Amino acid sequence: MSSSKEVIYRKDYQEPNYVVKSVDLAFVVEAESTLVTARIQFEVNPKQDKNELFLNGVDLELVSIELNQQQLNANKYDLNERGLSLHDLPDAFELKTVVKIYPSQNTALEGLYQSGNFFLTQCEAEGFRKITFYPDRPDVLAKFTVTIVADKEKYPVLLSNGNKISSGDLNDGRHYCKWLDPHPKPSYLFALVAGDLDYIEDHFITKNNNKVQLRIYTESKNIDACDFAMQSLINSMQWDEERFNLVYDLDEYNIVATDDFNMGAMENKGLNIFNSKYVLAKPETATDQDFINIEAVIGHEYFHNWTGNRVTCKDWFQLSLKEGLTVFRDQEFTADLQSRSVKRIEDVRYLRSAQFAEDASPMSHSVRPDSFIEINNFYTLTVYEKGSEVVRMYHTLLGEEGFQKGMQLYFKRHDGSAVSCNDFRLAMADANSVDLTQFELWYSQNGTPQVYIRENYDAGKKAYSIDFMQAAPDNYKGDVAWQPMHVPVKLALYDNEGNPLPLNDAGDLQLTYELKEISQTLTVNGVEHQPIASLFQGFSAPIKLHRQIGHKELAFLMKHDTDSFNRWDATQEMQSQIIIGKYQALLDNKNYNCPKYFIESFRHILLDDGIDSALIAEAITLPSVKSLTLKLAKVDVLKLFDAKEWLIKEIAYQLEVELLSVYNQNYDSSDYRVNSEQVAKRSLKNRCLSFLLQSNKKEFAGLAKDQFIHAGNYTDKMTALSLLTHQQVDGFEDLLGAYFTEWQDNPLVINKWLSIQATIPASDTLIRVKQLMELPVFSMKNPNAVRSLIGAFCGANITQFHAEDSSGYQFLADQIIELDRINPQIAARLAGLFNDYHQYNDEIQHRMNEQIKRIHTTDGLSPNVFEIIDRAVG
Ligand code: 0A1
Ligand code: ZN
């Protein structure tokens, strides 16, 4: 293994030798290059007492270096491709370096780079080292002052973190801005923007009566698409004060939108940078889901100001400390503002199909990993989504009040410092005087825990009991033997009329039962007849439940469970059973008919006026092929896909009348609003339409065409276009062509157009994708375009990615190899699409493996792609 593929271990953590007292940066920004002067005040860390220092620095052209105003002798430092080592240092000193960097050549989009005609930075996790020599690690916190100098006409806007303290004109047409961030921060939160941008402005008055100036910057052509994001920011600030008592701490809050970004958005102190996908939205060009995502991501980045910025991570292994907690906060924000039940269902649907898949893959890692080669590969579903589930379990165990007490103690103890997941757990435990020692296992053990249950009703004793048995995940990889976890089980029992039964002497109708042992029994006395249990309500723990449950019990829970999540989960379980039944029949060449009870229960849900439309829409959305794959082994993925398609068609034929009537009832021609009621109606209506189109009847194609032509909103328009295209209904090419002509200058809209085509389930789609890659609207340098076209084809077009001639796998491998030279982070994300290969049957595994091996033996792989592929090879 070459030195750039070195493995970093959590156990090797050492405090820094020197702390940074202050940093003064000066940037002279020019079109071809930027000059960066850094003056850094260092002081020895008495705990280490070592007079040597390593400063990270990558791709930097060193112009000069001075220590305490004296030019530094070349024998006092060593320079290599990773950075600068200094020896024989005094206990306190100032280091001044001048370096030159070339942002317009930076295609990795890490450090300082160019987007359109402006410059911007991305420093998390380790991008600051591409800007200047620095101890680029999250536990070195310092106060930053930043001066930016640039041509005034070309770069009128000059932004950095904190508050602007001065600005003015210089000679020769240049100007400057000086920024001071009073809050000590790690280098990964540094940001700078320079360019010609427009902005919209508003303000927020905090509960401490501080007026905060809020601005959203974007290229001027998009300035009319920022209002929703601004309102979302104001809502986030308000919500964090109300629910968490957390108040903003600067006089300005700036957001900048860019079309060129590796991730969703970045929480740099006082200067968030956003993928334009999560800022720009107008009713003519954004779907309901786009609006909802914008609100959530604006919230997420804002909430990081306290959970991430004020209290940050000691090392990158603790990433979930800020990410799991902040995802939990953004989920609660959406739940409080929109529909709590729908939000929970959607989050769990995502967790179960995507995070559970990661947990079962060669990339499986614990919420707090023990090692990595490239930290950028660990911005994962496990760290984010499972991390949030772990935080949610504290909330379940301690209640809202106890959880908030824990949060307060956490800030009291750690504000202004860099800490660990353990510090968070201890704050929760100490604030509530409870022992959460065993809870640590949620951070240290990888994989999805399994819980098996056995129910027993003793009519004579009128006692009902459940045995819970915990088991290790299949691919547990810890060094020590797997141990049972601390698992909260929210539950209720119902009698056969659907009335909840008391669970204890206190008469509680709902309980959080805590599992701690490998096997444990809960007994409820005084139960007159065989009851039905609702377990893990609200998905109270991120586990896989093994429970033998028949369709009668499922139908009962669908009808009577007071927990809306479990009502929905019963629908999903019943649907999974049917699809898997059909799949087995296809494998064995046997007949399988759709059971009557299934269609009846589906009809019942579809027509139930007692349920909110949004929940009906969730209930009639069948489980994803990915989540079904995880319930099986050695899967023939094309047959599984066929089994699901068969069920969709059965529903479409047998419930045509009902689907059409629900479609018509939910057609809403009032003015477009993104409120829960309208969003619910649209999603239910559009799901009905997607079933109807599967029956291949001309009249329903006509219905979709009408919807496309007359839609008063983009959600309806896009759904219709996508359904017509996927069904390849006569004339769909013309619709796509007209759409392109209208929107070719709007990348966000065009990316959707690319995705729709990439996911056509037809044998010529790969050819189409390759043709689309030739268009000027596509660029390998633009991550959104790559995700929309290549990502959509390989990640969401099951029949074509898994084509039997392996063309999909070959295509993916080719793209990974090419992209790795341009943008290793995005290449590594694509490489992750090979990670589920071992879920498939031997023949598929073999064909996927050929391509995985081909990548593995390619010379000059980045550490990013190498780590993913090396784990896949095993
Ligand atoms: N901290 C950001 C996510 C993020 C991570 C890495 C990035 O660049 C490599 C950019 C953003 C968040 O959680 O929103
Ligand atoms: Zn985050």
Throw out a few tags for this protein:
874 residues; alpha+beta; Immunoglobulin-like; Zincin-like; Neutral Protease, domain 2; 5 domains; eight-stranded mixed sheet; five-stranded mixed sheet; 40% helix; binds O-methyl-L-tyrosine; binds zinc ion
Folded structure, characterized:
The chain is α+β, with helices and mostly antiparallel strands. The chain has five domains: 1-196, Immunoglobulin-like (Sandwich); 202-313, 2-Layer Sandwich (Zincin-like); 317-444, Neutral Protease, domain 2, CATH 1.10.390; 450-548, Aminopeptidase N, middle-beta domain (Immunoglobulin-like), CATH 2.60.40.1840; 549-655, no CATH class. Helix content is 40%, strand content 21%. It has 26 helices and 31 strands. The chain has an eight-stranded mixed β-sheet with strand order 6-5-9-3-2-12-15-14, with no helix packed on it. A hairpin with a 2-residue loop joins strand 10 and strand 11 (118-122). The longest helix has 34 residues, at 381-414. The radius of gyration is 28 Å and the shape is globular. It starts with 7 loop residues before the first strand and ends with a helix. The structure holds O-methyl-L-tyrosine (0A1) and zinc ion. Residues 300, 304, 323, 326 line the site of zinc ion. O-methyl-L-tyrosine binds next to strand 20 and helix 2.
